[in-house]
Amino acid sequence: MEHPVQFLSEAGHRLMGILHVPHGPGRPAGYGLVLLNIGLHYRVCHNRLFVKLARALSREGYHVLRFDTHGVGDSEGEIEAGSVLVHFDRVQRGLFVPDTRAALDHLSRELGLERFVLAGLCGGALTAIHTAAEDRRVQGVIFIAGPMTVTSPTEDREFHPWEAGQWLAGYRARLRNPRAWARLVSGKSDYGMMVRALVVKMHHRWCQMWTGSALGRPGAAPGGHFNTHYLDSFQRSLQYALSRLIPTLRGEGREGVVRLPRAR
Amino acid sequence: MDEHPFYFSCNGSRIFAILHSPEQRAGGESGKGYIFCAPLGEEQVRTRRIFTTFARELARRGSWVLRFDYRGEGDSDGHFEDASLETRVEDVRAAISELRRRAGVERVGLLGLRLGGTLALLAGAERGEVEDLVLWAPIVDIYGYLYSALRANLATQTLVYREIRATRDELLERCRRGEPVNVQGFLFTWALFEQARAIDLSQHAQQYRGRSLVIDLARSTRDVGGDGNRSEARCLYEWLAASGVSDLMSIQREFSWEETPTWNPRPERLFSQTLEWVDACRQPKKVEYGTPRPVSE
């Protein structure tokens, strides 16, 4: 069972969503799930992933809302034309957090739900963790393939050591493939990429040995392209989660065992 | 903006739709409604916002617009693999009836992008109730288009296995034996390929008697227009012009349906050229038709 819903964002835009209500054998779970989409893709997600997921979860007893953030899909508002990287950068820094809060407000108002789990894919995962860091109604986050490095349009795109490793692994896998050798000797291979991957990986190794850091960059933990916004939100949402856990532990006579800073 | 999301029924399945009402300040309704026919699968996901923006533009100018998702796509019921070209044309027909019922308009136009353009033509050629067709980069060789889409499966194989384990012909053979092919998460069935092969679009195009605008979206400025341009759009235009009033425009593509390197919800040239043509078509056109022809033979 599903039906369209419309609600206002904090900025006054009318946002469009589809609410899936529990049906089937599962018992109502008592909290709502909100699915947050990739960057600027609309609420169905790639290959209708969220449609299938929401229908399956509603059969298990969950209220599930998937919605379009402002300027995306069928919602009001505008996201100006430009490089997708620029917009991803804004998403990574919390562009859609106010819209997500508005979605939670809508579910609270209409269904009386006060506890939520946010599930997001890629940029949606980051929106989920940023929202969880500041909204105590969020009880959990399902973080699907969220990027931990910043894709910044203002800096040259870094060829990440992990990415270089993936390329090298691919080359290694093709060492016994005659067709790959034929491409190599006939000049059809991307020699530039081979050299670049090798140099980046070797440099990374050297940095690891020099600094003794797994991150591999001299004095770079967690700088470089690591998404510090993500790290901050992750830490804060974890503190919320643990602060909820502590009263339970105290009730079991373990008072004083766990000491954590209070959430901001 | 007055936009109403709802479901309507087609052969027992729910079809998701959004009805855009004409804005009052537009100087009165045009008495006309447009139905938007979306492209297939992932192309629909990538171009959703362009349809939304253009629907709002038409509503602002006094037209009704109905956007809908085919069965098995978007928010409609069903699975992609259960839908076919036939069911999609049925969905367009059902959308025409629904628009007429809800908006009370007599005059209907269809606008389609890519395979949506092809489906609009198939539905429009069937019955004499479609006055205008706007076809953005329509697919003419449907089978070739589906075959070409199998490349996405090869890309997935390369990512997952680091090699290509099945060529497109091998995938097609498996498909023929009843194993659907995964194309970016959408399952292409043999029925889809079979129906595509059976359609002779030239006959359908020559059966259509209304007005039409075919817009060729060229990859680069070098490909725009020119006598040597034998694009699919030009080919379709010639078929349509043989039996009705057709216009052809060729402009550079301002957005991509294959990938999203840039975000452009408002392709200005495409919108302005289309709106100019739509405004020029405000006068009703009498459409006379012969015997309807089935979609595939």
What is this structure's SSE topology?
The complex is a heterodimer of chains A (264) and B (297).
Chain A: E1 2-8, E2 14-20, E3 32-36, H1 49-59, E4 63-67, E5 82-83, H2 84-92, H3 97-111, E6 116-121, H4 123-134, E7 138-144, H5 161-173, H6 178-185, H7 191-211, H8 228-251
Parallel strand pairs in A: 3-4, 3-6, 6-7
Antiparallel strand pairs in A: 1-2, 2-4
Helix pairs in contact in A: 3-4, 4-8, 5-7
Chain B: E1 3-10, E2 13-20, E3 32-37, H1 41-60, E4 64-68, H2 85-103, E5 107-113, H3 115-126, E6 130-136, H4 142-149, H5 151-161, H6 168-176, E7 181-183, E8 186-188, H7 190-198, H8 201-207, E9 211-218, H9 232-243, E10 245-252, E11 262-263, H10 268-280
Parallel strand pairs in B: 3-4, 3-5, 5-6, 6-9, 9-10
Antiparallel strand pairs in B: 1-2, 2-4, 7-8
Helix pairs in contact in B: 2-3, 3-8, 4-7, 8-9
InterPro entries (chain A): AB_hydrolase_fold (IPR029058), FrsA_esterase (IPR050261), Hydrolase_4 (IPR022742)
Pfam families (chain A): Hydrolase_4
Domain Serine aminopeptidase S33 (chain A): 43-159
